[in-house]
Amino acid sequence: MLHKVLFDTVGSQATRLLMSGGARPTAELESQFKALVQSALAKLDVVSREEFETQQAVLLRTRERLEALEKRVAELEQKP
């Protein structure tokens, strides 16, 4: 629900920005729109692709270590 409200707000601000642009150069509109989108994304609970991939690699290493430890525990339990 919050995301819909946020995107509606961003959409209305973008429309207002584009409608009032009139004689504004395209580069200026582009930079203002980029700032508007970045501001909206900052309010959401998202991470960058780089952070996601880093956490994914950490999770993979952790899973591998856990599996190795589980195997080691199983081996130790088999010994008398």
UniProtKB/TrEMBL annotation:
Which pathway? Cofactor biosynthesis; ubiquinone biosynthesis
Q: Name one GO biological process term.
A: ubiquinone biosynthetic process
Q: Which InterPro entries match?
A: UbiK (IPR007475)
Report the main location listed first in the record.
cytoplasm
Location(s) in or outside the cell: Cytoplasm
Q: What are the UniProt keywords, alphabetically?
A: Coiled coil, Cytoplasm, Ubiquinone biosynthesis
A GO term from the CC aspect: cytosol
Q: Where does this protein have coiled-coil stretches?
A: 52-79
Q: Which HAMAP family match?
A: UbiK
The record's comment on protein family reads:
Belongs to the UbiK family.
Give the protein's biological function. Required for efficient ubiquinone (coenzyme Q) biosynthesis. UbiK is probably an accessory factor of Ubi enzymes and facilitates ubiquinone biosynthesis by acting as an assembly factor, a targeting factor, or both.
Query: Per its record, how is this protein called by name?
Result: Ubiquinone biosynthesis accessory factor UbiK
Q: Which gene encodes it?
A: ubiK
